[in-house]
Amino acid sequence: MERIEIETKSVEETLTLGKQLGERLFAGAVVTLAGDLGAGKTHFAKGVAAGLGVTRTVNSPTFTIVKEYEGRLPLYHLDVYRLNEEESEELGLEEYFEGSGVSLVEWAERVEDQLPREYLAIDIRRSGETARHFTLTPRGERYLDLSKELETL
Ligand SMILES: Nc1ncnc2c1ncn2[C@@H]1O[C@H](COP(=O)(O)OP(=O)(O)OP(=O)(O)O)[C@@H](O)[C@H]1O
Ligand SMILES: [Mg+2]
């Protein structure tokens, strides 16, 4: 599987990278976000939201599992950390993944069986005080094209 590596050197660059992704996402897009505490998942998500034209403030969804935002396309920000298998089936994740919005999923490894066939996996790592390393693993052609486009920006 092809991987695309992108480095940001500041919070602003992370926001911009997220925004550039958000501007290019399509209805039914699914993006998973992984990374340790303080890696920058929430900042990146804020950028994605901005790129989708969301005007409300995006925060970590932790205590709500799903937060919905209105934009050019609806944004579903999911944090499935606290879901067990039964609960995640009840919640009906496919309805989000197959819907007309964009799903941004944190802790997606917990619901791996329920992820669609195609999605974009993003892993964020701290590579310095204000530097972050993004590894994009696209599953499917559309996400590959998208990732390559982001790489060249
Ligand atoms: N290049 C960068 N990109 C993103 N955040 C950065 C960068 N450099 C420094 N930071 C800092 O790293 C922290 C990232 O916090 P953020 O809440 O986005 O992380 P998170 O991955 O969502 O963490 P958590 O798992 O606790 O929710 C912030 O304090 C931010 O200021
Ligand atoms: Mg966060």
Brief synopsis:
This protein has 153 residues and is of the alpha/beta class.
Characterise this structure.
The chain has 153 residues and is an alpha/beta fold. It has a single domain, classed as P-loop containing nucleotide triphosphate hydrolases (Rossmann fold). Helices cover 31% and strands 26% of the residues. The protein is built from five helices and seven strands; from the N terminus they run E-H-E-H-E-E-H-H-E-E-E-H. The chain has helices spanning 11-24, 41-51, 85-91, 93-97, 141-151, and strands at 4-8, 30-34, 66-69, 75-79, 102-106, 119-126, 132-139. A seven-stranded mixed sheet has the order 1-7-6-2-5-4-3. Helix 1 (11-24) crosses helix 2. The radius of gyration is 14 Å and the shape is globular. Bound molecules: adenosine-5'-triphosphate (ATP) and magnesium ion (MG). Adenosine-5'-triphosphate is lined by residues 8, 10-11, 13-14, 35, 37-43, 60, 130-132.
